[in-house]
Recover the amino acids of this structure.
């Protein structure tokens, strides 16, 4: 017969166990594990390849040994390929419903007051058995709000659309007619979120410049949102009236 345990009893037993461990001498803790046997990972197939292509990498969960994911192990996935961007000519174009449309070079962004953020996220398609479309890193960049404040957001701007440099042909259905159109990847944020302190325009990961697989030279990060919202190879935020 199963025993019903109340929440109060669960807490009481947990505190009792913690008290017991606290009373044990240091030499006794390893002794408790003397009969333990190390079991290798059994969740991943023997032929698991974390990097099936240059444009896709799955985090190898067997190699996790700390809170930060190394840059060369950070998961990466996208639908429209890897654009080639020259950092010398790169410019972030801020346009739309702003008082002063502006263009920021990468050097100009780096000279602005920077912020560090330890932040992990996952792809919305992350699932078993691999659970490898997630990673955690220490990001360096400029708060999105600081950049938008430079441009002067108009009161009518209710939403900001963020476009990446990655693009490709997709089938678009318009009134039953399928047409192939060259689509630029984009996602949007409501005014309240875009102007909050949270979103970051990141240009470095774990103290190093972003690699192409981390969306060099610039990407959007929105803490608490799935990876699809973190627009890669960010090239243009534009304010709209919605």
């Amino acid at each position: 017969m199963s025993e019903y345990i109340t929440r109060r009893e669960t807490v009481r037993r947990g505190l009792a166990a913690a008290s017991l461990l606290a009373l044990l001498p240091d030499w006794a803790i390893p002794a408790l594990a003397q009969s333990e046997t190390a079991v290798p990972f059994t969740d991943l197939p023997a032929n698991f390849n974390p990097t099936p292509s240059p444009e896709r990498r799955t985090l190898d969960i067997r190699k996790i040994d700390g809170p930060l994911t190394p840059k060369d192990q950070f998961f990466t996935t996208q639908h429209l390929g890897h654009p080639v961007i020259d950092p010398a000519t790169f410019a972030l174009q801020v346009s739309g419903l702003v008082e002063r449309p502006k263009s920021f070079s990468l050097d100009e962004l780096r000279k602005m007051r920077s912020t560090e953020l330890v932040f992990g996220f996952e792809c919305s398609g992350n699932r078993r058995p691999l659970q490898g479309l997630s990673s955690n890193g220490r990001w360096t960049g400029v708060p999105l709000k600081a950049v938008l404040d430079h441009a002067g957001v108009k009161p009518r701007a209710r939403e900001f659309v963020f476009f990446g440099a990655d693009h490709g042909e997709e089938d678009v259905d318009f009134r039953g007619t399928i047409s192939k159109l060259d689509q630029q990847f984009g996602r949007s944020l409501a005014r309240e979120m875009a102007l909050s302190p949270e979103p970051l325009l990141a240009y470095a990961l774990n103290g190093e410049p972003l690699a192409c697989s981390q969306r060099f030279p610039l990407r959007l990060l929105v803490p608490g949102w799935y990876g699809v919202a973190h627009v890669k190879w960010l090239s243009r935020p534009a304010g709209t009236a919605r």
Helices lie at 7-23, 28-32, 106-111, 144-151, 191-194. The first strand starts at residue 91 and ends at 96.
